[in-house]
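# step 3/5: fold
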Amino acid sequence: MAKIKKMEVDVVAARSSLEGMLLGSYLDSFNVSSLNITLRLINTSACPGRLLYVDMSFSCAAIVRDCGISSGNVAELDFFVGRAAFLPRVYEKIGVEISGVELDFEGRLVLSMGDSVLELAVTDEDMELEGSVWQVVMEGGAGSGLSLGGSISCVSTGNAVMFMFGA
């Protein structure tokens, strides 16, 4: 079994990798546990003629909001109240293509989807727990000879976040 190599990358490199994995993808399904959500996306543009899965997992604050409406401070919402509002809105986004990706140095990830945006925000509570706050993983096309795949993670270090690339 091949060992997965991980290395720290800056926000520009992380955003570029996320754009390659997410732009043109559309939401296919999602899975929810008490603290984690995994969005399953299908990327139709990374490898013409093939459908590649992209899994986006997170345990941080999340919101789906209309474009042009300020998010306020997503990170200040009560976790479970925010989650209850998020789930029906993300359900409405099944089949909608991602047309934009924004990422900032604080780990805030914003995906443009039709007339809405899906926003993930790192909270103070997330900062207290060292480890992955969100992760995006694209399948590698195993057995096909393709050099696709990889992951980008937003990882809390206790007082800041860093971005990790995995190949």
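# step 4/5: annotate
The chain has a mean pLDDT of 86.
# step 5/5: archive (pending)
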